[in-house]
Amino acid sequence: MRSMLFVPGDSPRKFEKASEGNADALIIDLEDSVVTEKKPEARGLTLAMLKSRSKSHHLYVRVNALDTGMTLTDLAAVMPGKPDGIVLPKSQGGDDVRQVATWLEALEAAAGITVGTTRIVCVATETASSIFGLGSYRGCSPRLAGLMWGAEDLSASLGATEKASGGVFHSPYRLARDLCLMAAAAAEVAPIDTVYTDIDNLTGLEQETRAARRDGFSAKALIHPKHVDVVNAAFAPTEAERTWAEKVIAAFASNPNSGTLRLDGQMIDKPHLRAAKKILGQN
């Protein structure tokens, strides 16, 4: 997946519009985009959205955080709709994933879903304390599919007055971003870049997405439908990258017993082969 578009859980109209676009995944949101008094209604609407799904999108549901006491109620309401995955906000570490996984096992069985198939993506940097739990995701659950970093709630947790200047995040947020990327790599799950909030600045969005891809992120969360095509294009390999990857794969295919090869005057080895396959979506 390259693009994960948030859709308010109380807006079937926005869901229908988002479903017409090219996002790889839609995240139906029961958390920040739904006020407290509308959450019960939003659960029912979210279930209806899941049941009207299009095969062209993966559908995730962002539930409310564990410390709200609403997570299990959210899960019980939406699991009959067989979402592809759950997005857990304000996650503190692997123990939170294990708790949600335990609930999912029972709810899958009750809904006739193959046990273990519902994935979990964690928003893993929204509080100061969550930063110290990033190393605990590795091996916590086979359900874990991705770690997303977020800056909006983190700024409130830190008591900061500004997150960025001139389109560049300040150091606490760059630290959270980089640690989340490394935690995802260590856990062998997808690293997902945070949302871009300057809605009409598509040039800035493209630059931020290309920087995320350069550093190793494989997807980006989005809050507006017009961001989808920009992000999808930014995550696509360039022609030069594709040509290089094809040459690397062909070189190793011709020399299956070699661990190191010379290609265009440069030495390449198995990490280059892994990188080439990733560029072409072969791993």
From TrEMBL:
A Pfam family reported for this protein in Swiss-Prot or TrEMBL: HpcH_HpaI
BP terms from Gene Ontology: oxaloacetate metabolic process
Keywords, comma-separated and alphabetical: Lyase, Magnesium, Metal-binding
Molecular functions (GO terms): lyase activity; magnesium ion binding
Needed cofactors: Mg(2+)
Keyword Metal-binding: yes
Residues reported to bind Mg(2+): E126, D153
Domain of life: Bacteria
Record domain HpcH/HpaI aldolase/citrate lyase: where: 2-225
Residues the entry annotates as binding substrate: R62, E126
Protein's UniProt keywords contain Lyase: yes
Family per record: Belongs to the HpcH/HpaI aldolase family.
Name of the protein this chain belongs to: Citrate lyase
Organism encoding this protein: Bradyrhizobium cosmicum
